[in-house]
Design brief:
4 helices; binds protoporphyrin IX containing FE
């Protein structure tokens, strides 16, 4: 139960720090945000792996797609960070990354049927 919460909070923190990292004009803010994003990956991977056994029996295919989406998200965020550090980040890629974060989170919530947010809404 707490794993779902950690995974969810990681998603929200990752969304905020990625926006800061990609759109901030300050190099320092951007670098600190990138560091926090990398800590978020660790939390997302560890809690994600532990959640697989819970999700797989009910939705095997969707769970596999979720894992692939989660790992691809980390890859695309890192590509955007590398481009930003080389001053080659285009607004198109930056917005694509934000959209992808929302899609992966949305897909995850679909997989859990909205849990844990469904407890409140
Ligand atoms: C940074 C990348 C990731 C983000 C933003 C993300 C986001 C989410 C979100 C928002 C959910 C909905 C459930 C919840 O709120 O906890 C979810 C579910 C899930 N995620 Fe991720 N995730 C990521 C990476 C991963 C990875 C790497 C794995 C596996 C190795 C994974 C496995 C899962 C599984 C199995 C569920 C369904 C849990 C269940 O049915 O109880 N995720 N994810």
């Amino acid at each position: 139960m707490y794993l779902v919460w950690i995974h969810l909070i990681t998603w929200i923190v990752l969304l905020i720090v990625t926006i800061l990292a990609l759109f901030s004009k300050s190099k320092k803010t951007s670098l600190i945000a990138m560091m926090i994003a990398r800590v978020c990956y660790l939390f997302a991977i560890v809690t994600g792996v532990l959640l697989i056994s819970h999700a797989f029996p009910n939705h095997p295919l969707l769970t596999i797609i979720k894992v692939i989406l989660g790992l691809s998200l980390i890859a695309i965020i890192e590509i955007a960070f590398a481009n930003k550090n080389r001053m080659k980040l285009t607004p198109g890629l930056a917005w694509l990354v934000i959209l992808f974060i929302l899609i992966v989170g949305g897909f995850g919530l679909y997989l859990t049927s909205g849990f844990p947010l469904s407890l409140y809404f």
